[in-house]
Amino acid sequence: MTETKKKINIKLFKGSVKPNWCPGCGDYGLLSATTKVLAQMGYEPHNTLIISGIGCSSSFPHWTTAYGIHMLHGRALPAAMGAKMVNPSLNVVVVGGDGDGYGIGAGHFIHAARRNLDVTYLVMNNQIYGLTLGQSSPSSQIGHITLTTPEGVDERPINPIALALGAGASFVARGFTGDTKHLAGLVQQAFEHTGFSFIDVLSPCVTFNKLNTYDWFRERVYKLDDENHDSTDIGQAFVRGQEWGERIPLGIYYQSKMFALHQTDPTSRDRIPINEPLGFKKQNISYESVFNDFK
Amino acid sequence: MTIRVIWITLTYLSDDTKSSSLIRYAIRIGGVAGDGLQSTGSLLQKYFNRLGYYVVGHPGTQSTIRGGHVWQHVEISSQEIFSFDRPLNFLIALSEETLEVHLRDMKENSYVLINADKVKIEKFHQELIQRKIKVLSFPLSKLSREIDVKRAVLANTIAIGALITLLGIPMEGYIDTLRKRFGGREKLLDMNLKALDLGKTYLRENYLDAFVSVTPATLEGMKAIVISGNEMIALGATASGLKFLAQYPITPASSILTYLSNKASRYGIVVRQAEDELAAITMCIGAAYTGVRVMTASSGPGISLMSEAFGYAGMTETPIVIVDSMRAGPSTGIPTKMEQADLYSIMFMSHGEAPRAILAPRSIKEAFDVTVKAFNIADKYQLPVVILSDFALSEQTASIDEFELDVEINRGKIWTKATDEHPKYKRYELTEDGISPRAFPGTKDAEYILVGAEHDEDSHSLSGNRAGLPESWDLREKMFKKRFRKMELLRDEMDGPELYGVKNADYTVLCWGSTQGAVREAIDGLNQENSTSWNMLSFVDLFPFPFEKFLPFIKNIKTSIMFEVNYTGQLENLIHHHTDWKPTHSIRPLHGETPTPSSITLEITELLNQEENQ
Ligand SMILES: Cc1ncc(C[n+]2csc(CCOP(=O)(O)OP(=O)(O)O)c2C)c(N)n1
Ligand code: SF4
Predict the structure, then answer these.
(1) Which of A294, A37, A48 is nearest to A188 (CA)?
(2) Domain for residue B256, yes or no?
(3) Is 0.90 topped by the overall pTM?
(4) Residues B113, B83: contact at Cβ < 8 Å?
(5) Which chain A residues are Cβ-neighbours of B285 within 8 angstroms?
(6) What gap in Å lies between CA B211 and CA B209, rounded to an integer?
(7) CA-to-CA distance for A80 and B487, rounded, in angstroms?
(8) A129 lines ligand 1 (CB under 6 A)
(9) I need a surface site. Which of A225, A254, A275, B205 has the fewest CB within 10 A?
(10) Model confidence over B497-510: pLDDT tens digits?
(11) Does residue B11 form part of some domain?
């Protein structure tokens, strides 16, 4: 038997509309890594769904050829849940910013994690509100002077790694758009993971965040893989998750195998709801059984 | 203007006291939360339904789990009934508060069965004698302890045993109902059967001559079901092909979630409890985009939270069905009481202007068909459709004949592959009717991004770099008009009001939604007891308002009374906005209690007497 290997078109997911991001914006790095990995892994645009919230980063789906939902600010994850649960055969990718995911949408983040919803969630964390022109974000560093913090940020920043771990995410990683090769590797592993895979992607905003720049990160990042980190050990993951400042770990903090939501849901675990017939009769549900409950 | 004095009594229904047997019989059990009243009420209704009576049940609840006064109303009749009414024939008082609250609702010659271990009857003596109410004093707590020391709820079954004996109707049906309920749990069943028997014996031994005659049942037993409005909506949704329900618990919408959670796998529906209502509605939007029929349900506070996503569904032309089971607002309001005050807030929900439809079922029976219509409208016109229920309709139960569950499903325009008409897929293709084909992920060559920003035919955003460019001006206008063209088409599909009662009557009462049954019975009473003639116009399809179907009625309306349960007169104003027509009078009760034929009749009488005296 001969099987000719299909030639991979690496640009399959590259959209025709040019991104309107600032030149140098970190988000380009994640976009190119993601579209490349999608093509390499053999996904096709028609069975890939990319869902975002609102923000510079959330324009991401428009720059691809896949199906997409450009949702409301902070609500990408619940939309993804609706989509994935009725059609588990789709590869669902959720993208957005730190304001979108750790601020207004933080409530959904922890619930998607604890449910082990089988989507990949990529947060382009630039520690600032980009689209609204430079206010502080829930991940802005203490002391950072922004439009809304003239004396510097005085609220402790959110720790997305610890938050995801605490919420029970089954894949927790951190990447950096200044190292797209490493980032692409993480994205691929996230896609391969069944369950909620989350990557906090350090993605500098060159226009509004003059503090956490490419250089600032380059001086600090290191790879967990180089330091014998055991990503099956949640204790170690929590310890590494506390590191920020002098040294910032990149890579997979934690990964575990457990059932994803669509594998335990009483309905979608054994069928693809969108392909099912509609109504009682076509589903072969006897009227008698329906009415009997009410007698 | 002058109005003739009219005289109306409250016993507008066939007067029970005159005839020897009762056509309609109202029972109420009152106690504290935790007394298991809901369960007893449900068993009792199923029993009467089994016997072939028409049944209506109404829960009187407070937002408490334990303590606090709750009650369950069960009414039976040998003729079809359309509402529950307050006048009581039989009251079971498990607590003293029950007498304080409900004694006023009791008819002459009615019975009250008290738990003598908990209720001190002395202070009510005078009133009971004056009003000829008979007391059956049962030491229910003591009797239930005789069967099992730990199961105080057996008191309810003892009382039911006495009630059934009093009515002289077959006990077997209740035994069957218990058997079905406790199937497999022999010990529980056995205790309940003992309790039933104890109730019978205690009544016969102590009140030998207590007897009430009710007209025999007219229906064939077991042909009807006893169902709540929420359950009916859930059945309507399942029949329509619902595949995804996301909901966050809230009274009085929760029972849709709980009912369908238990049926999820069997009915092929993904049912998820969301973390909040914003999540619930956005989950629905995600699932609808992916290609299935979706629904969420909530009440005031949750509906308010959904507002932003509601606009998104309108803007992106995503079909979703939302049940708003209205409770008394604003804010937390009175969660366990009904109101019809969300019409405005749904009409104007979310910023900007986006299409939507609003339907308000008028009865439990109608809730099924209205739900089916809601799903078809949602898909056909690609917009959010709100089913306006309320506490009374959602939580009330009624017996209904079994009905056809197979319904017509119209999923609207869907693109699956290139055709001559649609060679290239455009999600928001500018069509004559304003409706463009939808395509679902998985379909090749139709990939597009759903976007809440204004967009072109290909769903490319006009908000970013294209905002303000001349090409966008034109497109913006075209897209707006496209979305609202759908509304005009949809208006044609909206049903106008239904006329009930005497044609060209002296008085017309207008109402909408769940109050229809009570208004209808009030009208019947008024027509029976008076020289004046009455009719009713009731609305179910509210928005887009089918004003052209209302106009022909206007010339025949003489004196009119608009009846709706809100402060500002929401439907009245909507009608006025479209037609310039205004009713002669308005009645807008705000006490929170579900309107009944008696309360409506009283309000009408007072209003007209007031007019006369002026
Ligand atoms: C409900 C709501 N509130 C506020 C906004 C305004 N808004 C748009 S984007 C944004 C913040 C974006 O920051 P982030 O998510 O970090 O994305 P970035 O632009 O930095 O990529 C805000 C506040 C909105 N669109 N919706
Ligand atoms: S403002 Fe910042 S986040 Fe937005 S596109 Fe420019 S660089 Fe990127």
Answers:
(1) A37
(2) yes
(3) yes
(4) no
(5) 69, 71, 79, 82
(6) 6
(7) 29
(8) yes
(9) B205
(10) 999 999 999 999 99
(11) no
Both B212 and B285 in a single domain? no
Domain extents in chain A: 10-267
In this structure, what CATH number is given to the domain that contains residue B48? Answer: 3.40.920.10
CA distance A142 to chain B (A): 30
Closest-lying ligand 1 atom to the alpha carbon of residue A103: 15
Q: What is the pLDDT of residues B549-603, one digit of tens each?
A: 999 999 999 999 999 999 999 999 999 999 999 999 999 999 888 999 999 999 9
What span, in angstroms and rounded, lies between the C-alpha atoms of B49 and B76?
A: 9
- Mark whether B342 and B249 lie in a shared domain: yes
Mean pLDDT on B174-196: 94
Q: Does domain A10-267 have CATH number 3.40.50.300?
A: no
Give the phi and the psi of residue B401 in degrees, each rounded to 5. Answer: -65, 150
Burial of residue A283 (CB within 10 Å: 0-12, 13-18, 19+) is middle
**Last-in-domain residue among B172, B206, B222:** B222
Query: Per the CB < 8 Å rule, is A70 touching B461?
Result: yes
Asked whether residue B4 is domain-assigned, the answer is: no
B462 touches chain A (CB under 8 A): no
* Closest chain B residue to the Cα of A63, Cα to Cα: B449
How many domains are contained in chain B? 4
Q: Indicate yes or no: CB of B270 within 8 angstroms of CB of A45.
A: no
Amino acid in the structure at residue B2? T
Among chain B residues, the shortest Cα distance to A80 is held by B286
Gap from CA of A158 to ligand 1 centroid (Å): 17
Q: Residues 194..253 of A with a Cβ closer than 8 Å to B: which?
A: none
Residues B105 and B161 both lie in one domain: yes
For residue B451, what are the domain limits? 413-493
Instruction: Kindly state the percentage of chain A with pLDDT values over 90.
Output: 97
| Chain A interface disruption, residue of B267, B283, B405, most A CBs within 10 A | B283
Atom of ligand 1 nearest to the CA of A131: 19
